[in-house]
UniProtKB/TrEMBL annotation:
UniProt keywords, alphabetically: ATP-binding, Chaperone, Nucleotide-binding, Phosphoprotein, Stress response
InterPro entries: ATPase_NBD (IPR043129), Heat_shock_70_CS (IPR018181), HSP70_peptide-bd_sf (IPR029047), Hsp_70_fam (IPR013126)
UniProt feature coiled coil, ranges: none
Family label: Belongs to the heat shock protein 70 family.
PANTHER family noted in UniProt: HEAT SHOCK PROTEIN 70KDA (PTHR19375)
The keyword Phosphoprotein appears for this protein: yes
Official protein name in the record: Hsp70 family protein
Domain of life: Bacteria
SUPFAM superfamilies the UniProt entry points to: Actin-like ATPase domain
Organism: Gordonia polyisoprenivorans
Length: 502
């Protein structure tokens, strides 16, 4: 194994880092000299272009540029068809292009081909999104050592730096996702106490609020927006994001639509985003409640992710928690730096070489896992929770409280993701299902045992056993409804190799 790297595959921006000879992680600058790369992909004339150039092309070629693809990870229905082509690209393939760009720059910088990577994901990502992220790495031709949680990575990069010990609260608001993790650090042992999040809450939503404000102001001035005009929409979005950034330091910012110049005041912006900010508070409080700790037990507050630069975020989080944010972590870099540390630890474990850093990490699953069971009255299927949220991962959890209804030779085994025990199935996510066939009859009320195996990546495998004789009825490397089949990954890997990524 050569050099290993850590990758923060972000909704808006991505970053890549490596552990230096001094045992400290450093960001690898991309070919344009930047420490982060916009997660934007341009398809033009058979060529694939990543990063700043792709982002800038959005105004002129809006239907050839994909951004925010992370929001579609694990969504089987999303396919991007660039204008003027019949080609279809799913979220895994689009993400694989971003990964290849980052890794090519790392190989160039390190003077050797990089193959082995650790990729970060939001802590709140479920099984399908994590599997899709790993598959993106595989399609890019990479060996994915591990998929790890972003706030955990950020805490690692903070905690290892100065040998910190204490309880650390990580508030991670990125471009598209939000996570909160409470972690105990002691003697380089990193133990997540609780974690929760929202996979669809980030800077993108704050941009949308500015867009709404600007468009309604424009309408008051007599203007009308053509929402079908993708170039104009891209231009407004770009300006909205720019205005949001300015409002992090200035009291007002301007957006130009047509011939009008519209001024947005910071107070007005803060009023418009108040509900979004409150949503993060509920999640923060949920994490504290689940950990059984109070804010006064927390020693450090880390603000991670570009969106924590917004004044309203820093001010609100400090106000709610009574803590002062630690400024020693770089909001855009901490996650990739932490991923580089985990990459080194994994590399050492696999090669037997002494690691340049020593740390242990113990994480938790942010969402519960369960199986679908028939309601007592036989009318509907309900969720029966087997793995509680905040269960340590990796792990193997068994539950024996299940049984067949009537005598049968087959069982439709459905596994679920979601926190609510007893909820109807539409309120949880069915991760996958298998029709498990037996070569003997199970009588009515035969006891069944369900086993969940949660891997290092926090992806899941499930087994069903006949509890009367311990026999394995069926193993489910879940027929994942939302992911590519292994053969598809192999095919896409071969196919996308032909495509030059620049
Ligand atoms: P990340 O995914 O962590 O790179 O976060 C990207 C998000 O941070 C995007 O929504 C950016 O618009 C936002 N962001 C970056 N810089 C600033 C800033 N100065 N003020 C407000 N938001 C910012």
């Amino acid at each position: 194994m050569g050099k290993v790297v850590g990758i923060d595959l972000g909704t808006t921006n991505s970053a890549i880092a490596v552990l230096g000879n001094d045992g400290l992680p450093t960001i690898i600058h991309n070919r344009e000299g930047d420490n982060t790369t916009p997660s934007a992909v341009l398809f033009d004339d058979g060529e694939v272009t990543i990063g700043k150039q792709a982002k800038n092309a959005e105004k002129s070629l809006p239907n050839n540029v994909v951004r925010y693809v992370k929001r579609h990870m694990g969504s089987p229905d999303y396919q991007f068809i660039p204008d003027g082509t019949d080609d279809q690209y799913g979220p895994e393939v689009i993400s694989s292009f971003i990964l290849r760009f980052l890794v090519d720059d790392a190989s160039e910088f390190l003077g050797e081909t990089v193959n082995d990577v650790v990729i970060t994901v939001p802590a709140y990502f479920g099984d399908a999104e994590r599997t899709a992220t790993r598959q993106a790495g595989e399609i890019a031709g990479l060996n994915v050592l591990q998929v790890i949680n972003e706030p955990t990575a950020a805490a690692l990069s903070f905690g290892l730096k100065g040998g910190y010990s204490g309880k650390v609260l990580v508030y991670d608001l990125g471009g598209g996702t939000f996570d909160v993790t409470l972690m105990d650090i002691s003697n380089n042992n990193f133990t997540v106490l609780a974690s929760a999040g929202d996979r669809n809450l980030g800077g993108f939503d704050f941009d949308n609020e500015i867009i709404k404000l600007a468009e309604s102001r424009y309408a008051e001035l007599g203007g009308s927006i053509d929402h079908g005009d993708d170039s104009q929409q891209a231009l407004i979005r770009e300006q909205a994001e720019g205005a949001k950034h300015r409002l992090s330091t200035a009291d007002k910012a301007k957006i130009r639509i047509g011939t009008e110049s519209i001024t947005i005041m910071r107070e007005e912006f803060e009023r418009a985003v108040a509900d979004l900010v409150t949503r993060t508070r509920y999640i923060l409080e949920d994490v504290m409640e689940q950990s059984g700790l109070a804010y006064s037990d927390v020693d450090k507050l880390l603000l991670v992710g570009g969106s924590t630069r917004m004044k309203i975020i820093e001010r609100s989080v400090q106000e709610w928690t009574g803590l002062t944010a630690d400024k020693s972590v770089h909001p855009d870099e901490a996650v990739a730096l932490g991923a580089a540390i985990v990459a080194e630890i994994r590399n050492a474990a696999e090669t037997g070489a002494p690691p340049a850093v020593r740390a242990t990490v113990s994480d938790v699953v942010a969402q519960g896992l369960g199986v679908a069971v028939l309601a007592d009255d036989g009318s509907k299927m309900l969720n029966s929770l087997v793995v509680q949220p905040q269960t340590r991962a990796p792990n193997r959890i068994e539950a024996s409280s299940f049984s067949t209804v009537g005598s049968t030779r087959e069982i439709n085994f459905q596994i679920t993701e979601g926190d609510e025990n007893g909820a109807e199935l539409q309120y949880v996510k069915v991760l996958g299902e298998s029709l498990l066939k037996l070569d003997y009859d199970l009588p009515a009320k035969a006891p069944l045992r369900v086993v969940f195996v949660i891997n290092e990546d926090q992806t899941v495998e499930a087994e069903l056993h006949d509890a009367s004789n311990g026999k394995l009825i069926g193993q489910m490397v879940v027929e994942r409804a939302a992911n590519l089949k292994p053969a598809d990954v192999t095919f896409l890997r071969k196919q996308s190799k032909e495509i030059v990524v620049q």
